[in-house]
Amino acid sequence: MINRPGRESPGRLAGGLLEPLNLNRLGHPEEAKTRLEDFHNRIQDPWYRVISACLLDRIKEKSLAEKAGKQLAYLVTGHTALGLWAEGSDQTKQALRHYKKALGSYRDDRIEYQFAKERIKRLQARTANKLGARVLTISGWLRAASYRSRFTGKHTDKSLFH
Question: Does the reported pTM lie above 0.70?
């Protein structure tokens, strides 16, 4: 998106950043880093250069937050990008932390805010589904153990339940 000539508007910059973020999330980290590097070298906007530098591990997340200062639009953009990058690296807790910080900006007029809100819902639902599958597995094992002890006279080791 950023390859086409034109002014570096927030929409164009966000779209240009979204490409490597999605590539990383879809399991293509090397291609994502290459595209992110290209994006970083091609743009001139200072804030998007800070975000891309952070994602490329050139600066620390703390530095990103300091450079955002009290500009809430910067915070929501930065934390949403960091959340999506963490998600692509299977760091769900870290992704949720960044998305929640993005919501803490209270900039619900920004598309990144809405995106972060939806990602939180999906990640929490995914986590709940995984937990539910584990509970079903355990309850199935308990039913089988109960069935076995009733009909075979063999009892399950009670130490498993203490």
Answer: yes
